[in-house]
């Protein structure tokens, strides 16, 4: 989707229009799943990487349908790639393309967690409650022994649920793996990391770090929703600029 008006274009635009997010672009590596995607990525961003062994690449750049075999394979290739980054000794913050960045998410991610994931349905006040609905489209992980073991066994557990993606296997295994390896796993607060799955919850541009077009099926519907939110953000920023010193919304 590395074309003008694509998900990648909107992600990059959100970095450029967010609050102190543009400098983060020099740390953003876009991972392509096929050579055509890599070529398109390089037209838009200097840091692009071709994911080796990604059998989930869409033929001729067509849209992968949710839960098609190629889609599931791509999700597991993503999971394996993340584990490889951890194995090299690096922390990472992974973001799907259908996420807009308005503020630096690291300001709201708990530094003590080994693994932090996105959330589709947040409730309660306990950040360690894993009974919420996790979303693997947003993941932060530190290269600790616990996180490495968690990711290793998470990937291996896919054989117990054939045909299921990484998110489903996480749901089934999260308590067991966290306990087995002593991993501290948290899910983000959707007050700051809004998910479109919570369509009833109005997000606040004064607080929001990211907007995830999760639970919106169909590429064009995602693009339309993200375009609308990005336009709303630009209008919000313009209003805050007019307020000048009376507004703190654009200072962090």
Automatic annotation (TrEMBL):
Organism, by scientific name, is Aegilops tauschii subsp. strangulata (Goatgrass)
Q: Which PANTHER family match?
A: EXPRESSED PROTEIN-RELATED, NUCLEOTIDE-DIPHOSPHO-SUGAR TRANSFERASE DOMAIN-CONTAINING PROTEIN
Q: What is this protein called?
A: Nucleotide-diphospho-sugar transferase domain-containing protein
The record's InterPro entries line, in alphabetical order, gives: At1g28695/At4g15970-like, Nucl-diP-sugar_transferase
Domain of life, source organism: Eukaryota
Nucleotide-diphospho-sugar transferase domain location, by residue?
Answer: 24-226
Q: Name one Pfam family in it.
A: Nucleotid_trans
């Amino acid at each position: 989707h590395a074309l003008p008006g694509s998900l990648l274009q909107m992600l990059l635009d959100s970095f450029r229009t967010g609050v102190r997010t543009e400098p983060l672009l020099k740390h953003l590596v876009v991972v392509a799943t096929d050579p055509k995607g890599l070529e398109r990525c390089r037209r838009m961003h200097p840091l692009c990487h071709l994911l080796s062994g990604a059998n989930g690449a869409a033929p001729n750049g067509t849209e992968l349908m949710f839960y098609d075999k190629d889609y599931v394979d791509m999700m597991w290739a993503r999971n394996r790639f993340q584990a490889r980054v951890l194995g090299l000794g690096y922390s990472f913050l992974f973001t799907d393309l259908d996420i807009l960045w308005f503020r630096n998410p690291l300001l709201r991610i708990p530094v003590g967690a080994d693994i932090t994931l996105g959330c589709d349905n947040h409730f309660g006040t306990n950040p360690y409650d894993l009974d919420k609905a996790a979303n693997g489209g947003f993941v932060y992980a530190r290269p600790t022994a616990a996180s490495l073991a968690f990711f290793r066994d998470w990937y291996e557990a896919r054989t117990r649920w054939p045909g299921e993606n990484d998110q489903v296997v996480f749901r089934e295994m999260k308590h067991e793996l966290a306990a087995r390896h002593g991993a501290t796993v948290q899910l983000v607060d959707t007050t700051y990391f809004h998910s479109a799955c919570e369509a009833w919850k109005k997000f606040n541009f004064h607080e929001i770090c990211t907007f995830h077009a999760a639970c919106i099926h169909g590429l064009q519907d995602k693009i339309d929703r993200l375009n609308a939110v990005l336009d709303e953000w630009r209008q919000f920023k313009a209003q805050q600029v007019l307020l000048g010193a009376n507004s703190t919304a654009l200072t962090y």
